[in-house]
Design brief:
Length: 510
């Protein structure tokens, strides 16, 4: 392996609230995560990204933080964090924490003080606060929308409004304010001092807003350039944080949660900024060969300009399950494709089990997206159902017998359980546990340049460099002969009987 540990690492996202509940209160917690570290080491991942465990009123499942330098008592203690890091390191696993620095909870002491202090106060200067428009300021200051639905401004009730790009309980911080700059740096140092190996920066592009607060033009749609996203000023923040990361030993990683195409994420990877930036666009690519080939080439070119590699995201807590987006067979095929490509890969907890998206009853949904959209968007909870570890009855090993998980598990959840898949050679878990060690042997550390080989319609075939194994991806509807691409089948995402690779599957060939 060449370069820092994270250059081609496989990182597993642990969604804490849905991973393992150690005490039976229905919420997954840090002791639960700690108890499953041997499972993650056995899976073959290099690192674990742990989603927020900080004190929070839980308006947005912990992404509304009231104290960035402590632990929610429902989820554990600082001693549990220290123990988790120590245990992970003994198992040769790195640990990434999730820092939510674009905003705080409305219960954060700063915002409680801002609400009480009144218009024009120093307390409100830490937030994006503007006078309302119209008589007595009863209209929002701009036409900016919340990512979660509805307007991005909420009134204080005294003529001033505050900005929240997410929920109203998540007021945005002004990162050009000295108090905010100092406090966020103190938070970063706090967790680095405790030994974390990296930091995922939530809502990475949102930290800087145009100080003129212009209205969005008519016809604006999400994804278009916006005065509140991915501005050049945001990169000075990451340069400052990158210097802090670099001051610690061990190649500490900074990864940006970016949403957009290659040209948007590439600036975060400049040599004086971060090591990784999420490539989220592939999450939504349909299984079309030319689209994937063009998209892969574009990402390699954009990241390569800065000496970096793409960061492939197979799934996350913010999108529908991989088995829903690409179909069960397609999700397995994309997994092997991403593992063969140059770069790092992020796997979402439960996708190694092939978990499906779950449709919840209205009354069970917790995601604020559902409420803010008036029910038009059912939100992200369908991909956050607590994991099944055992095939017996509910809660399927997620928590102690008789406990009730925070989101309801389907009646057939046991069919996907870890204990049932562990010895099933055809299972998605078995495929993942086989693929990750093989990746280290056949793909990791090979040249970043792809050599595309001729392939049948709706198929992809490539090597890394001029020699070595071939990855053959069949995104079509009919089987294809794999023999022209290698003498030996190393691994396939579906049984390749009679030397034919089935539709919507991937093979590694030597």
């Amino acid at each position: 392996m060449t370069g820092p540990w994270w250059r081609e690492a496989v990182t597993y996202e642990v969604y804490v609230r849905s991973f393992t509940d150690s005490d039976g209160d229905g919420l997954g917690d840090l002791p639960g995560v700690r108890s499953r570290l041997p499972y993650l080491a056995g899976l073959g991942v290099d690192a674990v990204w742990v989603t927020p465990f900080y004190p929070s009123p839980d308006s947005d499942a912990g992404y509304d933080v009231s104290d960035h330098r402590d632990v929610d008592p429902r989820l554990g203690t600082l001693a549990d964090v220290d123990g988790l890091i120590a245990d992970a390191h003994r198992l040769d696993l790195r640990v990434l924490v999730d820092l939510v620095l674009n905003h705080v909870s409305s219960a954060h002491p700063w915002f409680v003080a801002a609400r009480a202090a009144g218009p024009g106060s120093a307390e409100r200067a830490r937030f994006h606060v503007r006078a309302g428009r119209g008589p007595e300021g009863v209209q929002p200051p701009t036409n900016w929308p919340s990512i979660f639905g509805g307007p991005a401004w909420t009134p204080f009730g005294d003529g001033e409004w505050y900005l929240h790009l997410f929920d109203a309980e998540q007021p945005d911080l002004r990162h050009d304010h000295p108090d905010v700059a100092a406090d966020t740096l103190a938070t970063l140092r706090f967790w680095l001092d405790r030994g974390v190996d990296g930091v995922r920066f939530d809502a990475a592009g949102s930290l800087s807003k145009d100080p003129a607060y212009p209205d969005l033009p008519d016809g604006w749609r999400p994804g278009d350039p916006a005065p509140f996203s991915d501005r050049e000023e945001v990169h000075e923040i990451y340069r400052r944080w990158a210097r802090e990361l670099a001051s610690y030993p061990g190649d500490r990683l900074g990864v940006a949660e970016t949403w957009g195409g290659p040209e948007l994420l590439a600036p975060y990877l400049r040599p004086d900024e971060l090591g990784q930036a999420f490539a989220m666009d592939p999450l939504y690519w349909p299984l079309r060969a030319q689209l994937w080939r063009d998209g892969v080439d574009a990402l390699l070119a954009a990241t390569g300009r800065h000496g970096r590699l793409p960061t492939w995201v197979h799934g996350s807590h913010d999108v529908r399950r991989a088995a829903e987006r690409w179909g069960p067979h397609g999700a397995r095929a994309v997994l092997l494709l991403m593992l063969a490509l140059p770069g790092a890969v992020y796997l979402y907890a439960g996708d190694e089990l092939g978990l499906p998206e779950v449709t919840l009853a209205d009354e069970a949904i917790r995601d604020p997206v559902f409420r803010r959209s008036g029910g038009a968007d059912r939100g992200r909870d369908g991909a956050r159902i607590p994991l099944p570890w055992t095939a017996g009855g509910a809660p399927y090993g997620f928590g102690p017998a008789g406990s009730t998980p925070w989101l309801p598990q389907p009646a057939d959840w046991g069919r996907y359980a870890v204990d049932g898949q562990r010895d099933d050679r055809s299972s998605t878990l078995a495929l993942t546990r086989t693929a990750l060690p093989l990746r280290d042997v056949w793909w990791r550390g090979r040249p970043a340049e792809l050599t595309w080989r001729d392939a049948p319609a709706e198929c992809l075939a490539f090597r890394r460099g001029q020699h070595g194994p071939t990855c053959l991806v069949n995104l079509g509807d009919a089987p294809v002969d794999w023999r022209p691409y290698g003498r030996r089948l190393l691994l396939a995402s579906a049984p390749a009987a009679e030397e034919k690779l089935p539709a919507r599957s991937t093979a590694w060939l030597a």
